[in-house]
Specification:
The protein is mainly alpha-helical. It has three helices and two strands.
């Protein structure tokens, strides 16, 4: 029968090894830093893209309300407030989620102008 015994030196080394060495901690922190430098810009970029898409959707909804106004009245709305007051746009007309500016209508075409993101 073979019995494996640790020497006293190995036993002491195993007893005192309870945590990570400084080199191991630095390696882990470096890896986490590299991963964070890759991931964080993409998170910010995706949030910006989402706001741009919401702005496009708002513009499309306002243009549809303006077309309803034109069909019903036979003339284009000069300002967005006309769409709110006469309930062609269901709720209060929102502002741009990207830069916070209010939307404007072209008085001739009745379409939203500006807001190119």
């Amino acid at each position: 029968m073979f019995v494996y015994r640790h020497s006293n030196k190995n036993r002491l080394a195993l007893q005192f090894r309870r945590g990570f060495s400084l080199l191991e901690l630095l390696a882990v922190m470096t890896i986490i830093g590299v991963i964070a430098s890759v991931v964080l810009p993409r998170i910010g970029e995706s949030a910006s893209n989402a706001k741009g898409k919401v702005c496009l959707e708002y513009k499309a909804q306002i243009n549809v309300a303006s077309e309803k106004f034109f069909i019903a009245k036979g003339k284009t709305a000069k300002v967005i407030n006309q769409l709110e007051e006469e309930a062609y746009y269901g709720d209060k007309v929102p502002t741009c989620p990207v830069d916070g500016r209010p939307y404007r209508l072209n008085p001739i075409t009745g379409r939203v102008v500006g807001h190119k993101h």
